[in-house]
Amino acid sequence: MLRTIDLRGTGPVDYRRLLPRAAFDVEAAVTQVRPIVDAVAERGEAALAEYSGRFDHVVPDSFRVPSQALADAVAGLAPEVRAAFTEAIDRRRRVAEAEAASVPVRVDLAPGAVVEQRLVPVGRVGLYVPGGLAPLASSVLMNVVPAQVAGVPSIAVASPPQAEFGGLPHPNILAVCGLLGVTEVYAVGGAQAIAMFAHGVDGLCERVDMVTGPGNIYVVAAKRLLRGRVGIDAEAGPTEIAILADATADPRFVAADLISQAEHDPMAASVLVTASAELADAVQAELEPQVAATRHVERIWTALTGPQSAIVLVDDVEQGLAVIDAYAAEHLEIQTADAAAVAARVRNAGAIFVGPYSPVSLGDYSAGSTHVLPTAGCACHSSGLNVHSFRKQVHVIDYSEAALLDVASVVETFAAAEDLPAHGAAVTIRRPEAGR
Q: Which of 64, 170, 351, 374 would give a disulfide with 379, using CB separation of 3.0 to 4.6 Å?
């Protein structure tokens, strides 16, 4: 089922050129999205209604979800589902509170010369929750909890309207919003939701400072187009899992984890990196019966047989580490002997799942970690969504007259070296001998 890429004996090479990745042409989608974004900016709710009917096949009675619908969604949860949602929220909040524990920085450089770094929450954020192939209620808590812990005072959520639910987002999405105390929820999907957040819609939705959350290529294109007008978390591509495994790994577990990620999307990437040809064969043998037993056979089969998925054969764990660092996976599992020690050597991954009992699906819901993670190799330079994503770091400079005069000649000299004499003059004028 999975194709094989044999890197054994290749020596030092740029593995990024040899590893599989889904084609994801965001720039082409920007061309399609631009008219939608412009229409929402110009025509507001009328444009939302037009695109809701065209893309979601339903126009909600109200784009702002009524508070009673949120309460009804919470009341309608089965007890075991409510317990699962509540436990996942609690675990994510406990980890987020630990993330938030970093204290502001204050440096006394000299008497009267102080620089502080304050952590200031973003004023208002718009959080997008997909509702296409799967109603990702988990994405609500993964976005909302760190924003709340960061101290964001104004939080809005948007998710596509669903015809089968009378033009409201999926009830589970509404229920998690209700459990989290989020009251500003919109039945708006796709690029038009991002445009609504970025531009604001008179009488409906105030513009935001930042947009976060995953979505399809059109959502990503809208975020790229509007970046700068608003802050964004990332341009998320198709989801991906890489597993670094050796002969000690259980092929049943490995196959199940590859399948679980393929279930997300036909473009999802599932990559196994191993030095054990025997394990590779055993995993291949496990895939077909396990896929056949799932609900979404066609979607999973498409993802596993696509060009973005593969088994990568390497000489040993050492080469395997080089390969997975080059791949920089969104989700990385380490299923090797002494997995914790191997995981400690990984540089590039959105999240690392250590050992046979830390599957990615645990992180999707209830591990306490974030599941909004960098894709497409961006884990080599970016982090997953967390409390710090919703906080700005602001330097506050407080110098006394004596402290400024102590460093004045340095500033004046530096300004002259850059041929910016007015910069230096702004300090010189403050010298006592300059007069008043």
A: 374
